[in-house]
Amino acid sequence: MTNPQVVLKPDRDRSVKRRHPWVFSGAIKRAPADLEPGAVVDVVFADGGFVGRGTFNPNSQIQVRIFTFDDEPLNDEFIVQRVEQALKARSGLVGRDSDSYRLINSEGDGLPGLVVDRFNDYAVCQAHAIGAYRFRHTVARALVRQLDLRGVLLRSDTQFARSEGLSGKTEVLHGQAPDEPVTIRENDLPLAIDLLKGHKTGHYCDQRPNRRLMRELAAGRRVLDAFAYGGGFGLNALAGGATSVTFVESSKDICDAIRRNLRLGDHDESRAEVVCANVFDFLSSGSDRFDMVVLDPPAFARGKAQVKDAARGYKEINLKSMRRLDPGGVLATFSCSGHVNSDLFQKIVFGAALDAPAKLRIVSRLFAGPDHPTSLFCPEGDYLKGLLCQLP
Ligand code: SAH
């Protein structure tokens, strides 16, 4: 079978020679005019030599996402094999005390543009690219064959997916959508997750090991969980013996979800306070002191153009948090902006410590958990970075 060919410009083939799976529009010399978005194509060098096989989207900046650099068919069988490989690779990576974790992590699992999270007996897929969307039913079938699932949903309501021309509609690919939040167990704590309306796939699985780390450090500490979402960090801190936990979250509905999770886990609510507020205001106006602060904000930079403003935002929340820490206190500070790399992030935190002033040292560097593998060949997948700092 021959596929339509996308021919690269001779001076723009360096990145694919290094096996980077994205082909940007500027690197393409010639592509067939009448291709359907999502069509399987062969990428070839200017001299006709084979580069790789992927899916095409004329409406995206990333016009081809290469699934394989080997000359093998890119069909349903190929996708099933990659899904099975990804599931197999999870065994032993996630402890038995969690029934929720990432099953497929896009390029890190050789499935560009596809993310799948497991939440107990549901799986939620997100297609960030039309190529991944095209194979959605094959992916769902492969998941259902391997795992005991009550439902498989597809959510594509992301800015990125919209920019790829996807409708953003939630689809039920298998079984039924749950009519209420699904209870999962993470680090042995129950959490209720809204698979239909929650952020991303419903829950941020990437922070699971970091939440556990906070639990191990929390005993006897007054904890601030800023940008709390479902409250995962603070709930782990309570379970670890924190003397108090203050959750700060700006969305009222999400604050209700935190309260629900407090009841669900039978946590000691007298040690917990849910503050529905903007973290910037909370840090500027209050005066409470803490022994542990977790800063896990949303991505402040969604594009290169926003990096400067994002840096200002990160610096402000870090500086103000440092001023609230007592001696011996720890700050776990994160950025999930792909455009703010770990070097820059460390510089921002350094700038904040200099101005605070705070004699912080780095105790540990934090990342997404091992169920979020990233491709060495596509470092863009490595978005979450964190620093665990401590005051002497
Ligand atoms: N720490 C969470 C994930 C945080 S996601 C976890 O472990 O699951 C970021 C959260 O910050 C979202 O819930 C969002 O509603 C909230 N948020 C965004 N901007 C905010 C602000 N300025 N102040 C308070 N909360 C904010």
Question: What this model shows, in words?
Answer:
The protein is of the alpha/beta class and 392 residues long. It has helices at residues 14-17, 76-90, 130-134, 136-146, 159-163, 208-217, 232-239, 252-264, 279-285, 307-322, 342-355; strands spanning 5-8, 22-24, 28-30, 40-44, 50-56, 62-68, 100-105, 114-119, 122-127, 151-155, 171-175, 182-186, 189-193, 222-226, 244-249, 272-276, 290-295, 325-335, 361-366, 385-390. A hairpin with a 5-residue loop joins strand 4 and strand 5 (50-56). The model has no long low-confidence stretch (mean pLDDT 96). S-adenosyl-L-homocysteine binds next to helix 7, strand 15 and helix 9.
What key phrases describe this protein's structure?
single chain, 392 residues, alpha/beta, seven-stranded mixed sheet, six-stranded mixed sheet, 11 helices, 20 strands, 28% helix, globular, binds S-adenosyl-L-homocysteine
Compact summary:
This protein has 392 residues and is an alpha/beta fold. The chain is 28% helix and 29% strand.
Structural class: alpha/beta
Average pLDDT, to the nearest integer? 96
Helix segment tally: 11
**Fraction in helix:** 25-40%
Give the quaternary arrangement of the chains. Answer: single chain
- What is the overall silhouette? globular
Largest sheet: 7 strands, mixed
